[in-house]
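**User:**
If convenient, please work through this fold.
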Amino acid sequence: MPPTSPRRLSLQQIVEGQRRAAFVGRRAELDLYRRNFTLPPEDPRHRFVFHVRGNAGVGKTSLVREWREAAVEFGAVTASVDESADSVPDVLAAFAAQFAEQGYPLKALDRLLDTYRSALHETAGRLAADNEAPPGGMSAGEPSVGALAAAQAGLIAAGAIPVVGALAGGIDPAVLARSASGLRTVFGGRARQQEEARLLAEPVRVLTPVFVAEIDRVADVVPWIALFLDTYERTAPQLDRWVADLLTAGRYGDLPANLVLTLAGQRRLDPVHWGDRSRLVADVPLGPFTEAESRQLLHGRGVVAETVVREVLRLSGGLPVLVSTLAANPGAAGEANATAVERFLAGESDPVRRAAALACALPRRFDEDLVAVAVAAPKDGPYAVPELYDWLHELPFVAERHSGRSRYHAVVRAPMLRLQRTGSPQRWKAGHDRLAEAFAARRDAAGEGVDPERLWADQPWRRAALEVLYHRLCARPRAALPEALRAGIALCDQRPSRARHWAQTLAEAGEDADDAVLREWGHDLLAAITDHGPRPTAALGLLLTRAELTDRDRAAALVVRAWDRFRAGELDAALSDHGRAIAVDPRSERAHQGRAVILRALGRYEEALADLDRAEEIAPAWAWAVRERGETYRRMGRLEEALAVLDRAHALDPSDAVPLGSRGLVRHALGRHEDALDDFDRAIALWPEYAWALVRRSRVRTALGDPVGALADLDRAEELAPGRAGTEGERGEVYRATGRYEEAVACYDRALVLDPHYAWAHGSRALALEALGRLTEARADLDRALELDPAYAWAREQRERLEAAGEP
């Protein structure tokens, strides 16, 4: 047999080998990292955390890449993330994917992440649909203000859900804490058990121990695990506390001793989080290349003429990215006054390519379509856009090549922007205008079919919208600022957890357009958002105290802040903000409607109706206000009036399933079971995943003597929304109505495991226990129901009935 040929190297392996061979400098830093793998974890010289820091362009990313390769040489499983993963779930998902690629899947973590992602995807829709209280005849009453505040504050502060527009001015927040179990009510469609509800409200606390346990399992079979967080200066506001807590004994579990963590950012680690952990950290500050290192790189690239070398050293200041760029295009030796930008492109004499390289610095990230927009290339020009796009990716300062989100290194992009802004202000504005129009088209396309109240919660739409703002601000900072501030109000309304990206956009536009006012706005908003976490209160306060907003904008900001305060349990402040909004803009229908919802949750129905009167006077065709009036009448027991109003709400928006579901419940309460069934049938036809309506239709089918259909509805609801206490409670009602009392008690038992504070289930279980002759237990259940909800009139009547009958 012929000898076996050695395995061929791939093209990528050859290119990577050449790149590593060309890496120069940083020998001390490389040796420090390598030496750490030769020291056992028990050795006091061993370090578990490396923190490489330095200014942009100093070569942190390149060094981290070399460190990762060094870790692989020592047998490590490695994973790396940058600013694209700016939340703990994102980081864990990226780590898990990279572990799986290396043959070490983190299966338990992957399953939990799948559950988490699926839940978040469906949460907004469930919030919009789940606008109902327990059944009227057996109602446990409205949730207490304390339960409401606890549920909402926990959810929003955790940043676990998008705050959709309906929540910030449309959907009654009281529904979120129904049955005194806000977390399970909001996420009932996904929370199979209490632990899953906690996953949705506290993802960091639930996901992290699973991640720690998984990597500990991998650590048993590999020599080392090396994790890397690059561009940490951008993600530290979201991740720093979590990363530090990972190293705290007992916080998330025991990390394996053969784990080495690397952070790469511009600033020192925050002493608040890292002060008592500094002994674990190897601090690795990076400065510019020494002259010897710069010369080594230049000589390796064939740049040996001393006059040219000295000019490169002068222009680059030793920054590795500039040394590398100028080494590729050293230019003529005698151009002593050449600018850095000219040096970047000095090796390219073609004016079309030079112009394209400059123009493509305007977008923060670019793809082939944006290259066409930036360069305004004519169809019959000397270069086709695909050719220019490919050529750009040959430039040494272009990062994330061919990713669809390519970008220039910041150190190179900044002088290119400055050159264009100062050299031709008119061309600067025209370029940004073209890019703003292109992103506006992308934004509008992404918004097709998306609820206007949820646009900022939709990532593709939000990403394009922020780029529109960036380019309009760069073109005309002062003229575009009001639009940008209004966008911030809307973003704080719908997705406050992403407000940092909006503030960052303002800050970057201020730097790039060299506008002091815009720069100050961005920096101050970033500070407010960083200091106050996911709550938008501080950022909205800045807008209200310093922005030159219209009265309509000011009222909108006050309404958004009111809802944030209401979710945090700050009820007086929330009502005050709604009142101020109405004083500023008496024609703000959302302010009137929002105040009505808060008043209704407090049981102040007449005041709520007065506000709804005004909201409907201002916006007679606003279906949401009409529907809220119908819901208010229903809760007041004014069922005939509720029916008429819900008829009108349905007429205003026949495509909305929710008014049909609410009207079905009213008709059921009026004894019009066939009509109620028709409403629920139509609602479910419009929205087949309408689990709330399926549960209520089961109640109607039970009343019509169709227990088989009722149980089928509950099976489907359970499939759509597993582990929901209300579904189990309704199943118990079907069994109780058909005399299957033991099965009914078992269902109520399961419901109370899911929600121990479910007063309605205690009351209903009491009747099933009574039918089984277990009277002492029945009385105890009624006592517990009244303890949970002293206003539970039905339970009080049942207890009085038992007492009147002489039962113990």
